[in-house]
Design a protein that fits this description.
About 35% of the residues lie in helices and about 35% in strands. With about 100 residues, it is an alpha+beta fold. Helix 1 packs antiparallel against helix 3. A hairpin with a 2-residue loop joins strand 2 and strand 3. It starts with a strand and ends in a 12-residue tail after the last strand. It has a single domain, classed as 2-Layer Sandwich (Alpha-Beta Plaits), CATH 3.30.70.100. Keywords: Monooxygenase, Oxidoreductase.
């Protein structure tokens, strides 16, 4: 499953300010059972808007990680809040449909 959220960088800060904290928190989160990696993307034409995607084996794995709060992760996220606003987009199943172009 995918856990997706939008990050809006506040005035006076840059995406790199947030990304440093995001990498530190992600490295800890990725130690949880079922974690399969994270991605952070900049919006084309708007470097202050990012999208973050966390990949998990299942919603149950992600919920289990959230059910056992890690104070170090919470501290990193709280500290990063001065750089940005975060809006949850949602939790999504892995794709049911894929269209993959044929090899050329």
């Amino acid at each position: 499953m995918k856990f997706i959220f939008e990050v809006t960088i506040k005035e006076g800060y840059r995406a790199e300010d947030y990304a440093e904290a995001w990498v530190r928190a992600s490295q800890l989160i990725q130690q949880a059972p079922g974690a399969r990696g994270t991605e952070l993307h900049r919006k084309i034409g708007d470097p202050r808007t990012l999208i973050a995607i966390a990949h998990w084996d299942s919603k149950a794995n992600r919920d289990a990680m959230e059910g056992k709060p890690n104070p170090e992760i919470a501290s990193i996220i709280k500290g990063a809040s001065r750089y940005c606003d975060i809006r949850l987009i949602g939790e999504f199943e892995d794709p049911e449909w894929r269209v993959i172009p044929p090899a050329s």
